[in-house]
UniProtKB/TrEMBL annotation:
Keywords: Cell membrane, Membrane, Transmembrane, Transmembrane helix. This is ABC3 transporter permease C-terminal domain-containing protein. It is found in: Cell membrane. GO terms for cellular component: plasma membrane protein complex. The lineage of its organism: Bacteria, Pseudomonadati, Chlorobiota, Chlorobiia, Chlorobiales. It is a multi-pass membrane protein. The keyword Cell membrane applies. InterPro entries: ABC3_permease_C (IPR003838), Lipoprotein-release_system (IPR051447). It comes from Chlorobaculum parvum (strain DSM 263 / NCIMB 8327). One of its GO terms (biological process) is lipoprotein localization to outer membrane.
């Protein structure tokens, strides 16, 4: 076998360009698979470790105010393992160096010891001293964004009273891996943070002695979550409970769970494309190899080498570049995984991100790659094994072809000789030509998909921050205010326009379907807050009845005309029947809208308002911000443009990185296909092309014949690649969409121009590389060889 190994090495060096192209494709596919699988597993391990170490709860419940003695009653519910009660509220914050008011979510800590559930990781500083009510621990993202340090002071308005708090620690909690302000979907770490302070201090500030408004629980193994939730809702109905819910409805956990789910989808799609291309490349390269080495195979068999030896020798041509691709791809994937995990660390707040390189992933990569290698080489190896030595010593029988389109003399004279040769060769190998076009199209499709995700997220931002919301600030009230009080915001000097809305927590029921939801009553839909669908079209509120987002209607299995049972979870806790007037296809969240006067009527009270949307005079903003910081009754202020800027910065970094990676991999894919196609065409037709040169054709005409075929493939692949990219984008949008967000279908001209420009550039560079082979072609040596 030593002689066969030397032959294998010699032939691989002779075909180094083609083998390197195969290696590069395998490398990209394995790098994507290894990096994504390791990142997915690392996020799962990091989340599990975080939840376990800091005792993340299984169930959550908020209420208006409940006596502390109910904790014992809850602990006796079958299936409940641990119960933790807390006090929490939202307040406005005056941050040094920040003109706008910020919002803090205050969470109580036990006066002694660690929280039994939802613990706090202290990254620097210490926990608050129970004897010092002014001490707080502040979430790390807020501290970092505002460049605060332990020892700094910060002012807050709690229950209408101004307090000066001292920061003594920097913390994180599994409850806020994704830290966003209530009612928002995008983080604004500069203007929203979580503050932890001693319970007695918060009890005193909120007049909540002996009471709580937040509860967290863990369940015993095998306990029924639905039954425990039912018992909790029964016990706390009279205390203003908004309904208990599990982890799957906890906002932070839903975001990180969706991210892990998305990674699982990407692991399936991208490596499959690369390995499919690798199989095709190996197949056409090795089939050509067996065809050109017929005599060598015959000699080897005559010398006593068995069919197994010959078959393994041919498989070696596939396994060597695959082994190189696996080794480089695994190492590159491990490095790429660490970089991608850092990007996730910029969005999600973990005390530590555990990068876990799993050998199982590397083994799976090896198996996938070798499966692809064997799949690509099997047909060529079978052909070599089944080739009789006597027949192999003769030249291969010429193929029988039928006259083609341009073989008609009347048509042929209208085209040049190079064009006729190109068309004839494509006609004679239709299946091979179609596969070549398809493989090139896949690289274009990857480019389209990479730009689609960027454009889709950009459209979400434009709709949410541009068309849908036109206010400057949203002022959220601590408690629902009567209209007479809330309208005072419109009279503030510097407020140009004001709108108000009301939100009421309810439970929607239809048949066997039930959903805890917020009803939002709007004054109008064409002012500061507009109802726009995923296509940016303005929708109007019906005169009567509910307008549901399409996703919420699907979850409840309702359509226009159906009647929902609406159970109010606060106030008189009325239960009313309300018809569904229509649906709206929104991009973010689940919503149920109706007119504010209709909501007031259904609630059975005189009306109350939850928040104000304000348009401000730019010259008076600073004065208004200072006033908001001091105004009692404000739970928080959301700054629209500040949130947009924070979101754009976060998305720009992650999207630019992912687009760059996919573009680089798509370029490798396209280069490998075009280069291998041109080199194989050259090796198959080198004698023919050399004969044409001797007969008087110029090097330019020969180059046109050789590269023209690949140019035709590229031109044909562009529209096909666009179509495949659109289909993949549609499937991706459906796969990635969830209750939290829906990916809009956006295909901008820039997307297709970008894919076109990248493909043309790759084709030109490949053509220049292969063209050099034509200029250095040794005509005498080629023509001396036997057919």
């Amino acid at each position: 076998m030593k002689e066969l190994n030397r032959k294998l090495l010699r032939d691989l060096l002779h075909m180094k360009g083609q083998m390197l192209a195969v290696t590069a494709v395998v490398l990209c596919g394995i790098a994507v698979f290894v990096s994504m699988t390791n990142v997915k597993y690392s996020l799962e391990v990091s989340r599990s470790d975080y939840y376990s170490r800091y005792r993340f709860a299984d169930l959550f419940m908020q209420c208006k105010r409940a006596p502390e003695f109910l904790r014992g009653k809850v602990s006796r519910i079958p299936g409940v393992a641990t119960v933790s009660t807390r006090i929490q509220t939202d307040v406005t914050v005056d941050v040094p160096g920040l003109d706008e008011p910020a919002t803090a979510h205050l969470v109580s800590l036990p006066d002694r010891g660690e929280p039994s559930l939802n613990g706090v990781y202290i990254s620097s500083g210490r926990m608050p001293d129970p004897s010092r009510p002014e001490e707080v621990v502040v979430s790390k993202p807020f501290m970092k964004a505002n460049r605060l340090q332990p020892g700094d002071h910060i002012g807050v308005v709690i229950n209408g009273r101004w307090k000066r708090l001292q920061i003594v620690g920097v913390g994180l909690s599994p409850e806020y891996i994704y830290e966003v302000q209530p009612g928002a979907f995008f983080p604004d770490n500069r203007r929203f943070g979580v503050f932890w302070m001693n319970r007695k201090a918060l009890e005193s500030a909120l007049d909540m002695s002996g009471a709580f408004n937040d509860m967290a629980l863990t369940l015993a193994h095998g306990a029924s979550e639905k039954e425990v939730i039912r018992q909790l809702d029964r016990i706390f109905a009279r205390y203003g409970s908004l309904g208990a819910y599990g982890r799957d409805q906890q906002l932070s956990d839903r975001f990180i769970s969706d991210e892990i789910r998305i990674l699982g989808i990407e692991i399936t799609v991208l490596p499959t494309i690369f390995l499919a291309v690798a199989i095709f490349l190996l197949n056409i390269v090795l089939r050509r190899l067996v065809s050109t080495q017929r005599e060598q195979i015959a000699v080897l068999k005559a010398m006593g080498y068995s069919n197994e030896d010959i078959g393994l020798h041919v498989l070696g041509f596939a396994l060597v570049p695959t082994v190189a691709g696996v080794m480089l791809g695994t190492g590159g994937g491990a490095w790429l995984g660490t970089q991608l995990l850092q990007l996730y660390g910029d969005v999600y707040n973990f005390p530590r991100l555990i990068y876990d390189f799993r050998m199982e992933n590397a083994l799976a990569a090896v198996l996938l790659s070798f499966g692809a290698a064997v799949g690509g080489a099997l047909d060529a190896a079978r052909k070599a094994v089944n080739l009789p030595p006597a027949e192999a010593m003769r030249p291969e029988s010429p193929a029988i072809y039928k006259p083609g389109i341009l073989d008609n003399p009347q048509i042929a004279r209208r085209f040049s000789t190079p064009v006729r040769i190109i068309v004839r060769n494509i006609e004679r190998h239709p299946f091979k030509s179609l596969l070549s076009v398809t493989m090139i199209a896949l690289s274009i499709a990857i480019l389209v998909v990479s730009r689609y995700t960027f454009d889709s997220v950009k459209r979400m931002s434009e709709v949410e921050f541009g068309s849908r919301h036109r206010e400057d600030v949203t002022v959220i009230f601590n408690e629902a205010m009567p209209p007479s009080t809330a309208f005072s915001f419109a009279s503030m000097k510097g407020v140009l326009d004001a709108e108000y809305y009301r939100e009421e927590p309810v439970r929607l029921r239809f048949g066997s379907h039930s959903r805890r939801q917020t009803l939002k009553g709007l004054q109008k839909t064409d002012g500061l807050q507009r109802l726009t669908d995923s296509n940016d079209r303005l929708q109007n509120l019906p005169a009567r009845g509910l307008l549901l987002t399409t996703t919420l209607a699907d979850l409840l299995d309702v359509k226009a005309g159906d009647v929902l049972q609406v159970e109010f979870l606060q106030g008189e806790r009325r239960s009313v029947e309300v018809p569904v007037a229509g649906t709206i296809d929104e991009l973010l969240g689940l919503s149920a809208y109706l007119r504010i006067d209709e909501l007031n009527r259904l609630a059975g009270d005189g009306g109350a308002l939850s928040a104000a949307l304000l348009k401000l005079d730019g010259s008076k903003r600073i004065a208004l911000y200072e006033r908001f910081k001091q105004t009692p009754g404000i739970a928080g202020v959301m700054m629209l443009q500040a949130m947009k800027k924070s979101f754009d910065e976060m998305i720009a970094k992650s999207m630019n990185t992912s687009t760059f990676i996919l573009t680089a991999f798509a370029c490798v894919l396209a280069f490998a296909m075009i280069y291998n196609g041109a080199r194989i065409t050259l090796s198959e037709r080198v004698r023919e092309l050399s004969s044409l040169r001797v007969l008087g054709m110029t090097k330019r005409e020969i180059a046109v014949i050789l590269l023209g075929e690949q140019a035709v493939f590229c031109i044909a692949a562009i529209p096909l690649g666009f179509a495949i990219g659109v289909v993949l984008s549609v499937l991706l949008a459906k796969a990635l969409s969830s209750e939290l967000y829906r990916m809009p279908l956006v295909f901008t001209p820039v997307n297709f121009l970008f894919a076109f420009a990248v493909m043309v550039t790759v084709a030109i560079v490949t053509g220049l590389i292969v063209g050099r082979r034509i200029h250095t072609l040794d005509l005498i040596a080629v023509l001396k060889t036997r057919e």
